Amino acid sequence: MRPLVALKTAITAAFTLFGVAVVTFFLLRIVPGNPIAMMIAPGASEADIARLKADYGLDRSIPVQFWIWLKNAVRGDFGTSISTHRNVLGLIAERLPATIELTLLALVIALALGIGAAVLSMLSRRRWPGSVVDNVNGLLLAVPDFVWALAFVLLFGVAFPILPISGRVDPRLSYDFATGFTLLESILRLRFDIAANVLSHMLMPALALALPLAAVILRVLKAALETETGQDYAVLARIRGMSRLRIVVQEALRNAMIPTLALTGVQFTFMFGGTVIVERIFGYPGIGNLAIDAIVNRDLPLIQGLILTFGLIFIVINLLVEASFALLNPRLRHG
């Protein structure tokens, strides 16, 4: 990425985050509801309520509240959670690794299923395997992630209880890791018992998130492969006697991945939004589950911090997709 383009991207990202912060802050302050009411004990006096409002800066005008919050946020201080009385940034940092590991596992599953099914469908055109793949893909496109989550809980947690339905790791296991990336660190420390247990907890929520994305990848990649296999280079390869498998995998797949990657990046950002409901269903301790707790308790500082975190994640993912797109597309790489 050229320096001028990088600077422009950084400025755009900063303005985007600022806009998200402004809109979120003011909307949260004007919606009905009093967050202090969640904290006070029955029979609390007016003086107690006024003291709590002053402690959280809610006794000042909304513009003044925003200015104070913005000055603190620039220094990395997003305030104190109203419901947990903990530092917002520390609370998010504690939960974020769990969501990152879950979504990355879901992305790997989605890519494996989507690419594999697209190649199989291309190699089995006008035969029954291709028809089966297309019909199953229609089902996957129609069913949202939270429905898959509920189905997996009923199937593999109740009817055939072979997988854990809540949590991230069995509490009976003993470990002391330095980071919140439990799966990654357990593999690096050769604690494969922990890694296997974490994977067993992540499998159902990751599959629930992955299946809708896999369906999108399959449809887009298959259409791109059909276009690429009709290009001159693919026709020439067939004339030279190259097998259909080699044409699809070795010649056409790289070019077909360019539009697929762009759409996958967009859908991956939506996957982070999908973690809110899926994590709640499985009791998974990520920022999606934390977001619902914050909304239920009307925890304004925590909601504000979480929305900014989601916004930053979306920006980072889009930047990574643009960089990968440029690497795969020689016209952009050498332009």
UniProtKB/TrEMBL annotation:
Pfam families: BPD_transp_1, BPD_transp_1_N
UniProt entry tagged with the keyword rRNA-binding: no
Any one of the GO CC terms: plasma membrane
Subcellular localization: Cell membrane
Transmembrane segments: 6-28, 102-123, 146-166, 198-221, 261-282, 302-328
Keyword Cell membrane: yes
UniProt cross-references to InterPro entries, sorted A to Z: BPD_transp_1_N, MetI-like, MetI-like_sf
Residue span, ABC transmembrane type-1 domain: 96-325
Keyword line: Cell membrane, Membrane, Transmembrane, Transmembrane helix, Transport
Principal location: membrane
Family membership: Belongs to the binding-protein-dependent transport system permease family.
Protein name per the record: ABC transporter permease
Native organism: Pararhizobium mangrovi
